[in-house]
Structure prediction request, 896 residues.
Amino acid sequence: MGETKTKVIKEVILPKRKLPELFEKLLPDYDIYGPVQKAKEDAYEIAPGVDRKTLDLKKKLRGNDFQKVESPDELNLEYTTTVTSLKKFFLPPVEDLVKFELQNVKLKDVKEAEEQIRPFILFGVHPCDMQGILRLDYSFIKGNPESNYLSKREKSVIVGVNCVPDEYCFCEAVNAQVYDEGYDLFFTNIGQSFYVTVYTEKGREIIDLVETEEVTDTDVKEKQKAIERSRSIEGSEQFKPDYHNMPLLCKAGDSLPFWDEIGNRCFSCGTCNLVCPTCYCFDVEDVMNINLKEGARKRFWDGCQLEGFAAVAGGENFRASRTNRNKHRFYRKFLYLMEEYQKPFCVGCGRCGRQCVADINIIETSNLLYDNVEKI
Amino acid sequence: MKPKVAFFDFTGCEGCQLQKLNCEKELLDILQHVEIVNFREATSVRRDDYDIAFVEGSISTPTDVGRIQKIRENAKILVTLGACASTGGLNKLKNFQPLNEVREYVYGDKAGYFDTIPVMAVDEVVKVDYKIHGCPMDKNDYMNVLKALVMGSKPVIPDYPVCVECKRKGNVCRYELGEICLGPITRAGCDARCPSNNVACTGCRGLAENPNVDEATEVMKKYGLKREDIIRKYRLFYGYWQEVTK
Amino acid sequence: MNKIKNPYRPIKAEVIDVITETENIKTIRMKPSEEISFKTGQFIELTVPGVGEAPFTPSSRPSIKDMLEVSVMKVGKVTRAIHELKKGDIVGIRGPFGNGYPMEDFKGKEILIVGGGCGFAPLRSLMYEFFEHEGEFKKLFFRGGCKTSKNFLYRSELEQWAKRKDLNLELTVDEVNSEWNWKVGVVTTILDDVDMDYSSGIAVVCGPPIMMKFATKKLLDMGFKESNLYLSMERNMSCGIGKCGHCRLGIYYTCKDGPVFRYDMIKDYPDIWD
Prediction:
């Protein structure tokens, strides 16, 4: 886990009709989670300016979320992105850190928040999300390894699948379209079958549960075509800068006026942070049961775009303006952590842009930075 | 010593009072921690020696003003329950129409018997220590404030927008579904109850701290809403905030 | 698995004394259930269970392992609860966290300590460390400022220190509202008479952000090197292990890489003061 797994153990063809059998054999030992179309129902009142056709397409491609499934029929593998990133499996939106026992409102004992997690499979992970998990691994293992994260991560098996990109995607531009790092298995969708690449022993054990076929030359060609399709994004705005230059651009463009325009639009609602696969900030709160005898210290997903994020109890707020908070988010991805990790801490999944009600997106911001720094 | 608590109601639907009684599972535990000395809907005891006063409903008659001032004098801590008391809530809609017309519409030819004033949230009349927002108020929100007060600590009232809780829940954004939602500018604390049940946020908890209303207006225009539609949306629950409802 | 200890689990500590220092500052003396050794300048997270956790730099002697003290200003939810603590109460402690003061780098040097308000708390611990290693440092100057004379933290102890031969001490307040025999004015007005070689000397600054900002400017003007300015940065440290993100300062986490930073390390980052 965490290490790069570039070595291919073997490659086989799995006909799609075999998938139910594979699931059946896995379910006694694993919980399986995969992309499920969540947005099915129509909204109560669709706004007058909304085009019906794009709406239905959006629901199918973007209205998905990783949920527990019992059968492959529930899956929607032809998806662009899930609403929430996969961090929710390792860093849940709400999680107990420790438990307290109190007597007359005074501390009696501190206990571990015991939690039993079954081994689980994330089925249908896209390259951007895999890269997101690898970045979380880096942050949660480096320095002070965190037991809460690790205990879940160690139980996970990751099955990748190639994606259906849209105009918000830019994984390739940030070097996150990686097919051979982190997965136990990778499934390339080649029509009636999956072209399965096995990267780990765990992956081999799983794929060996069912009968597979040998790879033919046609399969190899089909696989390449499929990967090409996952690459091309029609009508997308190009991410202009070379990602290697992002730290330099950030430093050079810090005082450019476009940052204020972005700040003015921002709702400070934290959506971009919460849906981001590489944002892991959290807030901690003690929650007591109503009997006031037991309680837990819980952590919640938090976001640096929220107004109070960098405020201290004394009243100072170190990032009181929306502009500075927007810069902070961007710099964390393309400057601070990038200088440390050598790769952007953004994986180009596009979730922040897609779900931003104010339509602030990283491609646009990066291009504004690029164009305006050029002019200086 | 258990803190003595009292409950009072002003202009409102009493839905928040019901929410309190809906805490059936927790009711006995609550009674271990507090002594209820005044609660019209639940007990015949009427005493004025309370530490904490929970107030529901808006101030909408001259008599209300005197009553709430008296409650403030008696209480060490005053907590408003629900939108009507905390922000004026739906009742504020009245203030956008001529008072006499409203009065006649409601009371017909008996209107003369009923004195009325523009609707006010409780904090427009007296100092409020903590506000529990929402229409109706959220049970958990109420429990959290109650627990904190019993423990002698300061309750945490969220100041950020509903989107935070909505994203923690993994909901598909209402805008992705083509619907207008006031979540980005509305105060959280409801655990994104409406969007989690396939309904857009109507703003019942009032505005979040430092909301970007200008952008919300821009977005709604982009989604094809006319100015008057937008103002109507804002007036429903943000009536207490003149700026957005003009 | 689970060889790694849960980093969020506090140990218990008993409150053995509560000292009222000023109108809004109390010192809590605690006896941890396990020995805690901290370096001066490191911080701990103090838990009042059911209410929450907040970071404090101990103000006591690092060489004492079975007792520690924190001085707490009442500003928010957790500090309010801490002010309610009584002798015999049990609290939780995590830590120590962060880097602390690099005492080795200070050896043989002339050192100016500039403190403001609640910033005296970490500095008291630092001064104890200096005093315990008397002779290892060339010259010590202490310049302390506070808003009012009435609310001067550790005043009697500081006035005792003034008698020490190894220390040159001067104090000032913005406003005199009780008996006061020291200077009046902000702390930056009492730095000019510090008789040391600024270009090679060390300056340690700890106080509210606004005071730190002006003190830093003043010290640089006086000729102190950026790399000889040690600042205790205030941020809302929460997890203590560089995860929760609240205390991020450029490439650093204040809780893990700080809270003591050399000015040259952080000067180029935005939002360092406010």
User: Anything to note?
Assistant: The interface with chain B takes residues 50-51, 76-77, 80-81, 84 of chain C (CB under 8 Å). Residues 36 and 65 of chain C are 5 Å apart (CA to CA).
